[in-house]
Amino acid sequence: MPDDDQLEQQYRATLDERRQAEKELKRVEAGIMALDKQAIEQQINVNFEDILLQLFDSDVSTERTRAVLTRVFTAIRFMGKPEPYTSVFNIEIVPGVIAAELTSTQELDKVKTVFNIKLSTTHSRPTRWVIEEI
Predict the structure, then answer these.
(1) The whole model's pTM is what?
(2) Fewer beta carbons within 10 angstroms: which end of the chain, N or C?
(3) How would you class 97 by CB atoms within 10 Å of its CB: exposed for 0-12, middle for 13-18, buried for 19 or more?
């Protein structure tokens, strides 16, 4: 059985380790906060239309484009055809993915935006497509 001196030494060693771990945690958290602040500032100033130019650039691989689009459009559901030449879709997107891609930063906003669209056309030529949010 350990004596009091040994227990006290173990206690002090454990206490020192804990203090060092707490200091390290504070240092890491401060670095993360600074990084997040910088990433937030970059993402706030993003022009979301730029993603189209980046994604559909001929230098971007098909796999990369597919991976980003899969993360941006988490769901596209066909809801029905209320009338001829018209379809309704439910779409879920994560705008934070776009901001992260455009700024080459970590995805900070994981909130999904859900909306419904009506896609319609006519039988006449030339074909004209109309997209409306409903």
Answers:
(1) 0.58
(2) N
(3) buried
Q: Compute CA distances 128 → 52, 82, 85, 122, whole Å.
A: 21, 18, 11, 7
* pLDDT of 21: 92
- The domain ranges of the chain are 4-133
Please state, in angstroms and rounded to a whole number, the distance separating the CA atoms of residues 118 and 130.
Answer: 8
Other Cβ atoms less than 10 A from the Cβ of 103: the count is 18
Q: What is the mean pLDDT of the chain?
A: 85
> Whole-angstrom Cα distance, residue 129 to residue 121?
5
Rg (CA), the chain: 26
Residue type, 96: G
Determine phi and psi for 77, rounding to 5 degrees: -115, 130
Q: How far is CA 44 from CA 30, 70, 96, in A?
A: 21, 22, 10
Q: Which residue has the tokens 């066909």?
A: 78
What confidence tens digit (pLDDT) does each residue in 56-71 have? 777 878 888 888 889 8
Give pLDDT, residue 31: 65
